[in-house]
Please model this.
Amino acid sequence: MTVFLVIGAIGLLLLLASLVFGDVLEIPDFFISTTAFGAALTGFGAIGLIVSNDALRFLLATVAAVALGALVQLVITRARSSEVSSIGYDLVGALGTLTATTGPSSGEVRLDDSREIETRLAYSEDWLEPGARVEVVALDGSRVEVRAVDRSR
Model:
């Protein structure tokens, strides 16, 4: 019973830390987020306390904790992959003008969309000069991938 209490408390602390510090605690390219891992530990501890002290119940608590962690991870993954929801609108297809030389690793664009009041970091497959007209072809976090368009657009 004490083991479940300790594991649940560690999970709760991990959840609280991930709420306070956000992505600082995330391990890049790790298969599960800190929030999901904390939820799984908290669920494991809570379910373990409820059903405690029987081997079959221990297995049940483990399965339920893994399921809870997987569910939280699924929700987090879907929320993070939805780029449109993070800014509230879709930028793919938007036109703009480059404000810096742009290539595969770096660049900057000012988009024509009235909701875009700042320049955005951009990148392109080809090297493009400042002043070139471009179209957004993809979102990559807060950066946009652009390609040159015909000046008449």
Q: What stands out?
A: Residues 55-81 form the longest helix (27 residues). Helices lie at 2-21, 34-51, 55-81, 83-87.
